[in-house]
Design a protein that fits this description.
The protein is an alpha+beta fold. It has 3 domains: about 10-100, Orthogonal Bundle (Butyryl-Coa Dehydrogenase, subunit A, domain 1); about 130-235, Butyryl-CoA Dehydrogenase, subunit A, domain 2, CATH 2.40.110.10; about 250-395, Up-down Bundle (Butyryl-CoA Dehydrogenase, subunit A, domain 3), CATH 1.20.140. Helices cover about 50% and strands about 15% of the residues. It has a 4-stranded mixed beta sheet. The chain is globular and about 95 Å long. Bound molecules: flavin-adenine dinucleotide (FAD).
Amino acid sequence: MAWEFETDPDFQVQLDWMDEFVRTRVEPLAEVLDSPYDVKNPRNVRLVRPLQAEVKKRGLWACHLGPELGGQGFGQVKLALMNEILGRSIFAPTVFGTQAPDTGNAEILAHFGTPEQKQRWLQPLLANDIVSCFAMTEPQGGADPMVFTTVAERDGDEWVINGEKWFASNARFADFFIVVAVTDTQAPLMSRQSMFIVPAGTPGMEIVRDVGVYGEKVASHGYMRYRNVRVPADHILGGVGQAFVVAQTRLGGGRVHHAMRTLGEARMIFDMVCERVVSRGTKGEQLGKKQMVQEKIADSWIELEQFRLLILRTAWLIDKYHDYKRVQKDIAAVKATMPKLLHDIATRALHLHGSIGVTDEMPFVNSVINSLWLGLADGPTEVHKVTIARQVLRDVKPTQDLFPSYHLPRQRAHALAMYGDVLEDLQGEL
Ligand SMILES: Cc1cc2nc3c(=O)[nH]c(=O)nc-3n(C[C@H](O)[C@H](O)[C@H](O)COP(=O)(O)OP(=O)(O)OC[C@H]3O[C@@H](n4cnc5c(N)ncnc54)[C@H](O)[C@@H]3O)c2cc1C
């Protein structure tokens, strides 16, 4: 029996170091660099590489990896606590070697890649010498894989890919693309698609345009076209028809890490609004002394703590079972809660800052926008809620009776049948 809400003192020392390092050395990067994924830009090389070296020296580089890939083999709870700190800065994941989507892409290369694929792509990816892109969504739909039409056909020793991809993040910076394509149009959904590694610069592959999320410094979500793009047969990742199986591996732990980074961003915003309401006043009184302001502070604090517990329990369950499928409902709950949490906390903070809150001199609008895309990327919130509800209802037994099994008259009759005699006897004694 062990219910712990404390961190090992040894690991806490590492977290404290990370917290100080991210606040003082990493957070300023976002003010002077454009994108953490522009890894070959001399400015990034000059500023980011020395910080990465410090992280490596401290033994905190790419901690999501198992020991076989040079990681520490930290469980998900430790990773969650680390990611909470990394959420303060968009550069922090890159400085610590844990930036999405490279983490997910590295995970599937490690699981399903051939020795040649690992040698060529995984090693430089883990070193952050290159970055990668995951291209699955198509212009006609992302949430429903049945509508994907990009195809890969076998032609001798090659696969030939044709189609379009949409919102392929970091396409402009990537050295290789993991592209999902239909390999058997007649097969059931679970086995109709396969994944391919397509090196950047392969003839026929084109970025039609880079689409920008509102407020992003660099538009970096590629609208891509593939016209007779040829890759050698050994560029398939996993087997033919295995895209679905491979994709499942990719998303499990990553969602928990992403949620904890979102919590870190929300907490940073919360700290800001706390400073504001004790620093500013109106009508002769501090904002923080007004009850309607206090309610907003209290609601934000409660939501932060609730979400933190949900994530940590989910991380703990993953460590316990080592089986993402078994924890699918909990992971979906974390994913579905994340956008609303950030949205509500950022919106309250923005509002309590008054006019300066809506300006580009403050980070709140940016966080509100982040909360909106968090509800779309990696599947819309509705889809994750459907997963939760299906799993919750899966094991519930229906009653065959006309009235519910918990109908109060029935419960009363049952209680009387059980205890009625005793009560009657007692009545005689009283
Ligand atoms: C910032 C960002 C980064 C991204 N990066 C990548 C990437 O690197 N690679 C990649 O392949 N894709 C990426 N995507 C795409 C993302 O996976 C899709 O946006 C997502 O799957 C939704 O697809 P869609 O945009 O086509 O929306 P649609 O599928 O058109 O859905 C639109 C809306 O319909 C509703 N809806 C959809 N399905 C259901 C349902 N089952 N039940 C009820 N309502 C539903 C929801 O409200 C949903 O928001 C990214 C998206 C964003 C915003």
